[in-house]
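Table S2 (continued). Query chain:
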Amino acid sequence: MTAMIDVVFLLLVFFLWTSSFDTPEFDFAGELSLPPVGNAATTATSTPGLFDEVVIRIVHLGDGSDEIRFNATVVSSIDALATKLISVARLGAQPAVIVDPDVEVTMATSIAVYDAARSAGFDRVLFAVKP
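Corresponding output:
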């Protein structure tokens, strides 16, 4: 009986040490979700302003500049992006913000977009990872 109690305590210690009490790692989204498939009537009836996720795409243009797209809408600057993000945050929902930079985009631009999203009040700001 004593040996069985020892084994149970060893298993208990093993499972406590190997378990994780943190939230699952979701920081690296593998791919972006595709827009819902349907006709124009179903997409037009969706409520504007409510987002499941906000995708910020940073596209490197051929002339050396970068273009920021907020859910496929071109934004003129990071300040304008911050204004749009604040208006989305005021709606009360906390969607995931996914920053998807091109390979040629500098880290400074990517971090500036990340900081704009965090300063707007979003908790889940993720970077898209391409395989």
